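Work Package 3 (structural annotation) set out to generate three-dimensional models for the target panel prioritized at the project kickoff. During this period the team completed the workflow that converts sequence records into C-alpha cells, so that structures can be stored uniformly alongside our sequence database. As a representative example, we reproduce one entry of 215 residues exactly as it appears in the project archive.
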Amino acid sequence: MEPANPEKPITTTTPVQINLDWCSSSYDKSLHTVGVPAPTSVGLVQTASAPVVVVKQPQPTKSYSGQTSYKKYKEYFTRLAQCNGWTTGVEKAQNLLVAMEGAAAEAVHGLTANKESDHEAIWEALSRRFGHMDEPERAIQLFDVTKQGELEGIALFEQNLRNLYREAWPDSDMKSKDADSLLQRRFIGGLYDPGLQQYLRFHARTDDFTYHHSG
C-alpha cells in the first residue's frame, strides 16, 4: 500500500459567484458559477478608476484690420492669451500675426515671431499706425471711407459700421433720426455690390437703418 504523501495538498472546490455585468454585451448578464480551490476567505481587489482627461480647446483669435479701436483689441488679445495659456512672447507673437488683416497686416509686414521681443515689436508697429490719433477723430475718418470687403458678410459690415459710429460719436444717441440717416447713407454707400446699392437707394429711402435692408 502506497504511503500517503504529507506534502501533496488535498483540494476541494466550492461554487463562487462572479458577476460578469461589466463584460461586453456578448456575455449573458446573469451570474455564472465556476470551480476554484476553496480558500478560507475570498479577497476582493479594488481597481483604480481610469483618470478623467479634460482636453481644453483654445479659443480662436478674432482678426484685426485696424477699423476698430486698437486699444480695445489689445485688451481683448491680452485676455485671450491668458485664457489660452500663451505665456511666452513667441507664442503671443505667432497668434497675433495670424490675426492681422487688411491695413493691420500691412502695418506689421516683415515682422517675425521668432524671439521674445517680437511680441512687443508687433504692438509697437500697430500703435504707430493706429494708436497715435485721437480715437474719435480716427473713427470719424474711418467711418467716412469704410467699405464692405469682398469677402466680408453684410451683417459683419453693418456691425463694424455701428462700432465705428459709437467710437466716432460716443455721446450720440444711436436711435436718433440723425444717427440713423448717417448710418444708412454710409451703409449703402459702402456696400460691395453696386446692384444692391442701387436697389436700396431706391427702395429703402424711408426705412430705418438695419440689416433687413439687404433681405
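The two ends are 108 Å apart (CA to CA).
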